[in-house]
From TrEMBL:
Pfam families: Abhydrolase_1. Residues 1-27 are annotated as: Disordered. GO terms for cellular component: membrane. Its EC number is 3.4.11.5. This is Proline iminopeptidase. InterPro entries: AB_hydrolase_1 (IPR000073), AB_hydrolase_fold (IPR029058), AB_hydrolase_sf (IPR050266), Peptidase_S33 (IPR002410), Pro_imino_pep (IPR005945). One of its GO terms (molecular function) is aminopeptidase activity.
Amino acid sequence: MHGGTATTARGDMSTAETRPTAEGTLHRQGLRTWYRTVGTPVPGRAPVIVCHGGPGMTHDYLLSLAALDRVCVFYDQFGSGRSGRLPGAPEVFWRPELFLDELAALVSHLGFGTGYHVLGHSWGGMLALEHAVARPAGLLSVVAVGAFASARQYIDEVGGLVRNLPAEIRSAIEHHEAAGTTDSPDYKVAVRAFYREHVCRAKPVPDEVMATLAALGEESTVYNAMMGPSEFSLTGSLRDWDIRSRLPRVVAPVLLASGRHDEVTPRAVAPLHEGIPGARWEVFENSSHMAHVEEPDRFRAVVDAFFSQHDPGSG
């Protein structure tokens, strides 16, 4: 998910600012990953690692999840935010395997091998599902929010959403996509209209979301390499990504979550629900792509109940 420039924001004291917090750094193969641990261990409630979207966004827009009553680990994936960067690296460097290795290394570094959950949003949800495909020791459950199963199917679905926009917005997007002028002010205005409908319907836009969008606007190397210049064409290294054939390997319990108005449409999510044994799918009727800020109370309640169901000793 790529962010547009929002015009309004609200002040919202994050739980991450009121719970015990520690920061750390993971070093591996010359790469540096920054992370933040929020909360103190609670008996019987395993920690959760939170994977942000983008690719190339930062963890900030997910900080409201620190309200979950368990240790929450947020991190900026390599190439973004407070982690190390390689702006001159070729597209081939920025592939899912890089971030899968990073996540596995973080689990090991934190000593979570005896039990942990993973929550991923958008690209982070895709990453979380790939992590589950590998069947790592200690993985208790996965929550994948706004994730799709196939890049090509996602692009087809997004194209349908664009075609349903008002004519002037649709025309601006289609014209500038075809002309390769996605840096045009008119294009950016049209994209913001799409985002207000299918990415974040919260009004005003929360401060933590604004912080992530600002960071992505300043550093878009990873997004451009993996997605391309926009949400609508997907020309980067993820263009052929398709997890459908690997889904039967997932053995961890999985909760899929998406919004009724999500840019990741129900048809894009459905193959995950069909392909993952025993997967549960929760649709948030009043949300688009960011149910955690659009319906925050219900979202946290659903996620907390799911994690609690799969905590150690819960069975």
